[in-house]
Amino acid sequence: MPPGPVRSGAWSVLVLAAAVAVQLPIHDRSLVPLDEGQLAAIAARLARGQVLYRDVYTGIFPGVYHAAAWLFALFGDDLLVLRRAQVGVNALTALCLWQLARRVAAPAWAWLPPVLYLELVVLDFPGLSMLNYSPLAMLLALAALLGLLRFLERGRRSDALLAGLALGACALVKQNFGALAGLALLGGLVLGGRASAAAIATLALGAAAPVVAAAVAFAAAGALPALVDATLLSIGASQLESFHDPLPPILGAHPDDPRFVFLYTPAALFNYLVRGERLLGLAISPALRGAAIRIAYGGALATLFAGALVALATARGDPRRGALRAVALFAGALFLGIFPSAIWSHLAFVAAPLLVVLAAAADRLDARLARAARAAGARAALRVAAAALALAGGLVAVRISADVVRWYPEPLGIARARLRVAPEQRALLRGATAFLERCAGPGEPVFAAPDLPVLYFLTDRPNATRYDLVIPGKVGDAAIVEALQRSGTRCVVYNPRMYPQFRPFAELFPEVSHHLESAYHRVAEFGSGDNLWYGLVRAEAAR
To answer: How far is 537 from 490, CA to CA, in rounded Å?
Structure first.
């Protein structure tokens, strides 16, 4: 039986408090110029009155960008604001996992999903420590699933309506997560035996409300055709071209190339690998990396298989049957959101519902062992194994947190980013920021290429183009050159090392690359070795 409301409320407060406490040591460490830079730069453009898709290009639905703009308007223009918002997203995700697990597992197992998720936040640093469309969309999808389970329990249409509203908000943040979650919720209604016309209509009405409101607003701004083109028509082919990364081999040999290591190695191990450090005395060898990749991906697939078995094997009279089937279907559907790029960071983004399935499968196995004769030892071993898993993950997370604090000790010293970074990162960002602020006056457009959109936000200088070169899609190579020429952009910061997931910059954007080489002079360098950026000034301005 689920706990009473007072006890449930106390446990919920405990989950939230623990979630915040776990994240505090690392939430303000490091800075990711690509991902959080893109979000902050677009949010700043929205604050200046520009309209998404019409004036600013992205292939992702608008929810997270407007959320970031609202956060900046409320709390000030600072990347720390977005980091703190992600602390809240992770805490609420842990709470949703606790509430979901209570409905498909006994209390002895319901603690497992939030604990493992909070450990994952640390193990995946910095992927789940910065506000991003994927974790925000997953939180909203989990909230929609929770609303569905409440509807299956009580049959109240208000729960179906709330589930629909959360689903619509999820779709506005990330379109593929919204579509997958919507299909899973409809399937959950059918599997839970409550797929009446009224229930489906209520769910659809709730989901349509925020989506239609947003569509009307963009249509009024003249941006709806551009939204449809960028986020629905152009994004698919470009995603397959730029992000076609399949699941890694679970049993077979792993490719021995740097790109595979970068994309598929769990973030914690990769952080130690690039620094040449040991984790709990273990060198990050190819064998250790390979084992970690196999465990991560193989464990995810095994959990999905176990969830399917539990859903199919649950007896018709079991009161949790509908919830178990809905959760298993939801986890399987959202796992498809890992494609077309099944890299480690994307696995971390779709892992949360798998943890609920894991708890449900463990609970069912535990109950079966409790009924079996002479299985007390096996049951005790199962519980010890779960506790050992959580404890080992906790010890590793504590060590990683301490090392993250050590790796990123220095305040960046830039007003718009009260974060702590590594010394070499501080030199890069402060050097590039100071160059653009000297080279271009307030309000004068600049350009940062190919994956440095954070510089627009840090310097409060506008991007001369519609594009930040982060989200793939119909990015106009010639249009970027034309915008640079039309605006007379004098100052550029250029990173010659393209993000490892992409082809070289000169292949992706040949006209922009040629224009930067022919129309600009290199006048400054920031960083050293592999971490080297260039300061460019337009040729006629440099004379």
So the answer is: 5
Q: Look at the pTM and tell me if it is higher than 0.90.
A: yes
β-sheet bridge partners, residue 493: 448, 535
Q: Which residues contact 313 (CB under 8 A, 6 or more apart)?
A: 364
- Distance between CA atoms of 227 and 242, rounded to whole angstroms? 20
Q: What distance in Å separates the CA atoms of residue 277 and residue 271, rounded to the nearest whole number?
A: 9
Q: What is the DSSP secondary-structure string of 388-399?
A: HHHHHHHHHHHH
CB proximity list for 441: less than 8 A, separation 6 or greater: none
Write out the two tokens for 457. 């936000």
Angle at 240 between CA 235 and CA 244, to 5 degrees: 140
What whole-number distance in Å separates Cα of residue 101 and Cα of residue 352?
11
Q: Among residues 364, 357, 355, 366, which one has the least CA distance to residue 389?
A: 355
Tell me how far CA of residue 73 lies from CA of 5, 46, 63, 76, 81, in angstroms.
36, 11, 15, 6, 10
Name the phi and psi angles at 470, rounded to 5.
-105, -60
Print pLDDT tens along the chain (543 aa): 455 555 668 889 999 999 999 999 999 999 999 999 999 999 999 999 999 999 999 999 999 999 999 999 999 999 999 999 999 999 999 999 999 999 999 999 999 999 999 999 999 999 999 999 999 999 999 999 999 999 999 999 999 999 999 999 999 999 999 999 999 999 999 999 999 999 999 999 999 999 999 999 999 999 999 999 999 888 766 665 656 789 999 999 999 888 899 999 999 999 999 999 999 999 999 999 999 999 999 999 999 999 999 999 988 888 899 999 999 999 999 999 999 899 999 999 999 999 999 999 999 999 999 988 788 899 999 999 999 999 999 999 999 999 999 999 999 999 999 999 999 999 999 999 999 999 999 999 999 988 899 999 999 999 999 998 766 567 778 889 999 999 999 999 999 877 676 777 888 888 999 999 999 999 999 988 778 999 999 987 555
Q: Of 158, 41, 142, which Cα lies nearest the Cα of 91?
A: 142
CA distance linking residue 307 with residue 138, whole number of Å: 19
Task: Answer for the pair 480, 509: CB distance below 8 angstroms, yes or no.
Answer: yes
**531-538 and 491-494 strand pairing:** antiparallel
How is 463-523 classified by DSSP, letter by letter? BSSS--S-S-SS--HHHHHHHHHHHT--EEEE-SS--TTS--HHHH-HHHHHHHHHHEEEE
Residue type (1 letter), 501: Q
